[in-house]
Design a protein that fits this description.
4 copies of one chain form a homotetramer. The first copy, chain A, is α/β, with parallel strands linked by helices and about 250 residues long. Chain A is built from 8 helices and 10 strands. Chains in contact: A-B, A-C, A-D, B-C, B-D, C-D.
Chain lengths: ~250, ~250, ~250, ~250
């Protein structure tokens, strides 16, 4: 029986500020990427999100980012790679210790936002991410963009890599994502999202913005929780997968 | 042969800002309290300080604080104790993971500044600190003011407590510290500092601001690294202890 | 014809984080208190809110706070009054300059959250607030809790004071507000809110949590924009005031 | 009689952290660039620095930066130019209001660090800086790199531009500065610094890292206050200028 992993960014609230719909979405994913306080999240939000994940037996990953709360980690920052490695080790450790305080385990690391995109194409940044993960715990998996540079970096080392694809984002012909700011870059029709996931799962391919079909091999599929249709999209994905007896479970 | 522990706050630089004289002081202490990024320190400074401690085989403790970089953690903040517990777990975990990435071990936790003082007298805060320490790792020791409330809280639980006394601070008759802002509150004559330590070690007592002698039992003695005479005071302490064949080593 | 001022805290979003319903509420108030980036708000949000206020010809006030984004300025902080004065001057100036860049005018200052409450009862804090306001611009009005210490401080000086009452908060018998955490502290029935305002306007009194009627003289009435029923309450207030031909306009 | 302006970055301390030697340097410059709290400085430091400038009758400029305290504003950040404009208006206004609270005047704006360098070569950033300055106060002067893009942008508009040269930095053949990280990029021999200034003043040229002489026209000359030899260099500059009866005074 085929199995796939569904992941979602979680714990991105901050203090009095609420983002996302974590309580509703958590039961529908198999992995959750918890913000570590640098682009979003704070210790109280992190604790609440860890508990929500444990309640629903959802696998926990760290979601570290550039230190940029006001820009939500989406602005590129030119940080020395050695410094970046420590910045990531700090964030991953903070979440890891909090997870372990409940007798649970941190399973993986997925960089956030501008860091995710930069790690997908710049070698020094990809290496800083991989090194941070390996130095904190060799058993941690690194999740990143399918087919990107960070995947290649992991292959050269001993780090397990999980390729990720986006259920609700439009792709370019070269396999990268259309910019968030471009019209139609975020899919908000639940059926279209579900069909995109199904095509990725069954045929290991995706239809791009130009209508071209390109290959795309992924083990985990991401839904953006701050999309207002995220809940509907997740339910549509579950329906379409159930019809094909494909099981949603953590990688 | 008698042994005592000497500790110092370390890693309190931040980005471009340098504080203290860590490289010179590290070889002269047996324990170092490393700032965790909330009142001082940042991931890069933390990594540098961990490496310095490992190089000199100095025992490492976490030095978490209120989230107040601009106030250096010295301003009282009314934080909900449950929130405070998570804020502390976050900081302790961050440092712990970074220390363990070098195959080393985090040995203890010493709260910083206003948090230290509040934990010494307010039960909800003392409990939040003790709970944070216990939840992260039952093997961690909590360091706090000798004879204070936090010591009593630890006795009720399974947490090991190490009582601390201040080598370079003046005491009040009630065993608390004179306010930093008061004249003469910080001792800057190395000989006087060394004599105060010796009296504490040999006789378990201290002379207060009024000249009174009060009992004071401590296992660790703190030197403030940002005091310009810190290095001279540490050398004076080492001399006076060597003459009595008292050994400086981690508790 | 009687006139009253309705005010609301605005511009409390931050980066990717949205709070309140400013676009819908702005047309219904005569004064808006704009956050200055220390408890909420950021330069981009401030600019957007200033423009919204100008579009609707709503009087603009600064809403400075303790430097505590994560606690939304609701946690008491023990800041030296001299330092606090500069912290407030900074925030007020930042907003003032941005308002004046549109050829408009900053009219008043209303402290936020824990600072508001502390200024209402502690003399050094009330004086720091009053001094900050006066030093930035003697023409600025200070808005604060009706009948509180800060009102008395203003009377001793040349600062114009506008007494504020809360449309949607329950009062204690001593004229202070019931704690936010207490049940029923925030009124969410629009009719009850409107009746409380009407009683305050017509009779200069308020019914407290115990049912007692106490005197309360105010020139401005606050609605909390983050209350889900804020919009309904404002509409109910407008209806009830229109029936009595009481006009809503800036003080 | 010839006159030149000497400027220095000031007020870059933060809370407990001290940087520079403002008290000693202030009497030796004619203009000071005061940090506005985003890369360095805080409201208390700003107030202290304003007072120091007023005491020595030194002209005051705002020194705004990217929002990056940990990176001291020296890391490039990809901020939307419209957002950047508001970020700069906020900082400039904050300082301006504090200066005016003493009956004094803010004279100019000089961007800091990575923002300074980016404004010198990227049109959208240069325009954002120029627009921010003009919107806050058309009377403000913009100080920037001599011969750079931001100078050209100012020429197209009504903003007065003051071209700056660096007394203590090595130049490349193309008129840009050698990277801070390169050996010899910062001049620390006071005589060499003084000679470089004199050549710039008398002959409007500078000798580059390759020994080539290139033209360089500047009205203000910058000394970096965090350079340990800054004080000696300033004294050497004053000596060499006095011999030629060149007067140091604000532009």
């Amino acid at each position: 029986m085929k199995r796939i992993d569904l992941n979602c960014d979680m714990g991105e609230s901050f203090g009095h500020y609420q983002i996302g719909n974590d309580a509703a979405i958590m039961p529908l994913v198999s992995s959750c990427n918890i913000a570590c306080g640098f682009h979003a999240g704070d210790p109280v939000v992190m604790d609440r999100t860890i508990n929500l994940a444990l309640e629903h037996k959802v696998q926990i990953g760290a979601h570290p980012a550039y230190p940029d709360l006001n820009g939500f980690g989406r602005r590129q920052m030119q940080i020395d790679p050695a410094d970046l490695r420590h910045i990531l080790k700090y964030q991953i450790s903070a979440l890891k210790g909090m997870v372990e305080s409940y007798g649970a385990r941190l399973a993986y690391v997925k960089p956030h936002g501008a860091l995710y995109n930069t790690a997908a194409r710049e070698e020094t940044v990809a290496k800083a991410v991989a090194d941070a993960v390996r130095e904190i715990d060799e058993g941690l998996t690194l999740m990143g963009l399918a087919g990107s540079l960070v995947a290649a970096i992991c292959e050269q080392t001993s780090i397990r890599f999980v390729a990720e694809a986006f259920a609700d984002r439009r792709y370019r012909d070269n396999g990268s994502l259309c910019s968030r700011k471009a019209k139609g870059a975020v899919l908000d029709d639940p059926e279209e999202v579900a069909q995109q996931v199904l095509r990725m799962v069954l045929h290991e391919e995706v239809k791009t913005e130009t209508g071209k079909i390109i290959p795309l091999q992924a083990q985990s599929f991401c839904i953006h929780g701050d999309n207002p249709t995220a809940l509907d999209s997740l339910q549509a994905i579950h329906r379409i997968l159930q019809e094909r007896e494909i099981i949603v479970s953590a990688f």
